[in-house]
Structure prediction request, 1524 residues.
Amino acid sequence: MKTYKLITHTRGCNKSYDADLVLNPQDHPTAKVGDVVEIYAPDDENGTHLLLQITELNEQNKTGRNVISIESCIAVAFKMKPYTHVVMRIVNPADVALDSIEITFKDQYMGRSEMWRLKTYLTNTCVYVNKKIDYNDMQIRCQVYEMWSQGERVASGVITDDTKIVFRSSTSMVYLFLQMSSEMWDFDIHGDLYFEKAVNGFLTELFQKWKKLGCNHEVTIVLFSRTFYAAKNLDEFPAHMRDCLQQDYKGRYYEDFYRVAIQNERNDDWCTVLAQLRKLFTSYQATVLRYHERQNMRIPLATNSTATQGNFLEVLNISLNTFEKHYLDRTFDRTGQLSVVITPGVGVFSVDRELTNITKQRIIDNGVGSDLVCVGEQPLHAVPLLKFHNKDTTLTSADDYSLPHWINLSFYSTNKKIAYSNFIPRIKLPILSFDDDPDVEESERNFLSCNQSEYIHNSLFDYDAYDEQIFQPLPAQSTCSLQRVVRAKKTSVPSFETYAYRNNDWENLTPTKIPSLRRKMSDPDIHHGTSGMLATLSDATNLSESLASEKNARRTIVSIAPIVRPGRALINPFDPSHVTIKLTSNRRRWTHIFPKGPTGVLIQQHHYQAVPAKTVPAINYSRHLQHSNSTNNNTNNNNENNEFNSSAGDQFDQMSTHSMISLTRSFTSQNFAIGDDKSDFFKKRHNSLLNATPAANVPNLTATQAKSYLWGATGEQEWTPAITTGVDWKSLSIPACLPITTDYFPDKRSLHNDYVISAYTLLPDDVNQDYATSRAVYRKPLSTEEVCKEIVSQRLAQGFQLIVVEEKPTTASSSNACSASGPGVGSGATTTNNQSTSAVLPVKPPCESNKEFLLSIGRIFHKISFSGSVITVTGYRPRHPYPPINVDYRYRFHAPQHETYEISGVNFTTEKLENFSWNHMDLYICTRGDVDYPLMESLKYWRFRMYLLPRDSMVNKIVSFGCQRCDIFTEAVVDNTREQIEDFVRLIETVSKLKRQNGRKARDSPTTHSLTKRRHSTSNLSRPLNQGEPFRERVGSNRLPGKRPSIDVRPKLDASRISRILPSQDAATAAAATATAVAPRDDQDDGFPMDIKFSASATLAEMFEAMKHPVNGVGFFTQTQSLPSCTFISYDALIWLRSRVTNGRHPLELLEAMRKERMICHASGDWNQPVVPGFVFYYVVQQDKNAKDYAPPLNEYSAFVNEWLEIELQGCGFLWHDEPAPTKVPNFLRDTPAPQSWTEYCMNKRVCRKSHLEIDVNQKSDRMEWGHVKHHTVMQPGFAFELVVEWVTSSGPIVSDLISGWMRKANQCGFQLVSVPADPMAEPFTEKSDPLRGPIFIPLCVTFLPDGAALFDEFPENSRSDRMLFLQETILARFGFMPCVLEEKFTLNKDMPKEYQYVHCTGNMFALIRCASKNYQVESPSRQEANFTRCVYGHTNNTNVPKKVGFLWAWNHMIPNKKWKALTINNSADGELFQLRMLKDFREFCSNSDQRLAKFWTDSQELKRKCLKFEYNNNNNSDDAKIV
Prediction:
């Protein structure tokens, strides 16, 4: 065997050694680029084998003869020493193919569409453990974590089309819920409180693992519990308690409490948080149980619930309400969502059936990981176990259970040892005190004292016979008749609660004896219509159950047909393995994250098999599982099967566990009704199975594949009491994202009977041809293949999964079209000849004409076929969709920095996925986001909302110098409005990707008034005579000047009309600026070369000609598509005219006059658009239309504004026209208060507008990406300016790259671009808010005047509420808050109070003022206001509704954690955060602490007196004094 000398190299240090593997082509004449080689030590064939791929073969980059070089890090990882000899041979990629691979990524957002593209990129590449993957086209960085091949972990392998790729995120949104039920105060077997076991044990270990793995999760920790009240009716409760009370199915009153300890935080070290949790624990129970106690008031006795009775499902739904809105507040530094409930219980919960169905459907549809961690002891029955509420309290009623596969269960146990025993109990004995325990069922209480004959005629109770009868499967021979009966009734049947069961007297039971319907339809996984048992049974847990005995089966079935579900425990939690359920897409939604074990069965690595003598690791336990499976089934099957099991048991060792499980499954399921197409198969097998050999039964797999075990996440592992569940640390540390592939598709019969089929075709080429001719703006359209790929991407992004259909050898060409992945489009489509291609690098293959994709979510399936230029979309939706369910839920929560448990309410609803408008979405993609198909709210498009805020130096004064008071933001600030506007214009130019030809200088450039010689493009205007050098008009244009100028500009203007401005005349300009209340700069340069000043008699034409001057004129933008030549913005023109016109002529009026004279026009070509000051485009109308660089306007206003951001400037007219200085009298004390200028102005105008946005500005993506930007139509200094980026057809990292560029540019321009949530205040009872977030109410003291005088008594009553608003606004301004203008919410209620929202100049917090509609002191508030008051403001110690004058304060949770924590005040005692100092100081100010509010009032009155006196002196007549 030939060996090679091994050397190592470091990538990047030497250009010739940039690959993982470098070799000499002469040594390997048959090697090709893309081949996979295996490298190992010759003396250690069974040791570590390294697989690498040849990525380059050329003579320049080569090693010496018989030498190979591998990257040094790989050599170290695989323990390969340099200068040793190794064997290297080329291997067949199929032999080293991986079954599954886990890839981790951190601190980035990777959408499901990007995951699919990454899978395509990785297909046919070789990977090894810890390999770093850089996908530059999508700017994705990730790392290989773990690989599985042929049932075991491997260190390297090749990713093929069939490899399942699992994406795990180290930066997820994690909700940790601690159930503070009564067991938390109990002791475990080691003498620790269960709380200590949860926090000191589990959480401590979890946080250590996070640290070790470098996780950076965004964590929310919530303590929750349910409090029961001993009361029979509502009258026993005082009025202040009734708002939040709820009643359970037994009529008990309860309240649910949530204590948010940590909200959206990231920490390098979580130890400090553990101390905080311990502190909360000491007071939690007393606080919650005694929360409503008041002096001289009696309330019902409160008790903490047990874990079983707790609010477990409600907690999951609360997290889902946040998770399902992930597209609203998109961040670019995390991916994935995980909800973890830590309970002291054992995994058994008493739940409402309807809420279970909602929870299940929402968790599965949203693809959210749900983990349950029990710190109690693992019971001897299958868990997690949901026990449905049973409202029937009769003695014979029985309980119904469900085993949810959608919850990933872990049991945490400490490693403590007991000296005297190593026995670990699996049960916790309850205390026998029936009388005191309100949770004990009536039937349980009377069980021993009841009349035995009610159960069975014999005096001796034969429990085994009873159990056998109860859990006996339906006889095989009854299948057909059952189906005949049921098929006549195809509609879904609701389930009955219970029915009378006495003496097993089935013959006499008639439908008339059945009680009325009580429950709605049950488990969403149940398939209605095709198979008999599935239609008659309402829960997945009941699929194999029937109480009919074999001998009278046929007669029973006719009478039992209307009966949906017998009222007894149809699942045996102590032996769930005999129950199998029909496979559905829900059951297989997550299965592709599980690796295949040695036997081909999907395994969960934290499930261990208890084996005597020694512990078996997770990977190797499957062989032992075989024996326990066979013995375990012996106990539960009938004698006939027992004999077979024992005789065949010896041969099971020779078989795989997969066939073993399918074999034992066939014994227990031979009598099941699986469906029309399967019944004959099973009837034949019933006779032949007993004499069959194990080998002959291997094909059973195909028959049983349509079924799955009831228990467990995979559905392929059989439950036995010997399975011990550990902690799934991997899921809790690096949670998996929902896999992009699944493998379930209904059979043809099911599709025909149970689904409604709809189809439509798309012809992207034809559509785009029509649009190209009819649209004003041309954009490169997507090709048909790109449209098809994007259509699939959008479905993946909305939670669909690609269905991997197993290939059938007989029809290879057709089945390939639906296989797992392919180099062309990724998983879901492949070429038919990909086996023969040798290039396994991610090279783009030739395009293929036929592809087919199958996708699914829930019971909705889509088939997307692409043939030639036609795309066909076929949709399958259920014929009988589930009715929408809505649960109204009320609770109390206490968020950080809040003082009370506040009331909130939320709705839990199932979403009707079949109503999603896919047709609209597909046409949106086809037309590349045309205005005819706008993004609608129902399309769940992604958005990133930002506020543009000016940077404020006062923050530094508080943070760096430790200023104690925070109301310093209005102190002596130089008016920098001019600089702000200039910077804003520069920033919007960058966002719009515009460049100027000449004219304006950057604000920071050296200023000069001399005519400087510049390189510039004159576009269609003439150049000065001395300008003759070649120039570049724009990127990509090398045109040299050679054409006659298209506009004649006179080289000399009439000297009598123009007076030259010399540098020495700056004083006059500065004086004029002072008059306009603008702080003058040293030379008052407006950024234009200055050479002229118009006399008072200058005509419009002369001004216009000067404006067009290529050097001294207003300055035009370089040529850009959809922008006409010679375009400028009105702000530039106003500033240019301002410094050149005299005699008080208004620049805006001059521009408007030019427009009316048809000298200039709006850049869209619409003559009806007046001149608006701001970043609004206008162009010179008179141009030579034959000029080479002439570009006409679009002549379509709507198309133009869809292309360009146009923003009006408000509140800064003094920059271009002399305006009287505003009075300094505080607004709330003026005789006629000035309204909020922009807010009032926007009453009749659009607040926001949307424009098209090209997202991939750096041309990095291999995908055509676009989006939209929604922006304020007005910019006013002192107001927040809103920008929202919206997209569906873009990649997260590319959008992130664009926005990061904007943020950097904003910083350069003296602004900060801050991300803000869609719903900043998150008020209770609002639809889209986070249920565990809410505003803090800060009351404003209004009784600080001496003698209790009311505020604003001296003013008319009808102005007082407005004055109160202005007072509050002035207080906010002192603390650095700026107004935000919001779009009007449409409401039918005209009496809704007005709301005004504000954001702090740092972007860290929001404030909201809600004005009473009439007077600020409302004696009897309206019902809605009172409701809001109770909910948000909480309860103080008195029961009166508090005064409503005050502020709502909320934190901006979208601020990155590091930036949030960077504002730590220097020299503060405990490293106090600036944000918390602000809140504390604001509270003190508003409560008139140290008479601060009273002093502010006095100072304001004094300022008013001084101003009035000053104005009186100026006017010499007090009667003429005016307050503006």
Notes: The two ends are 98 Å apart (CA to CA). Residues 1492-1515 form the longest helix (24 residues).
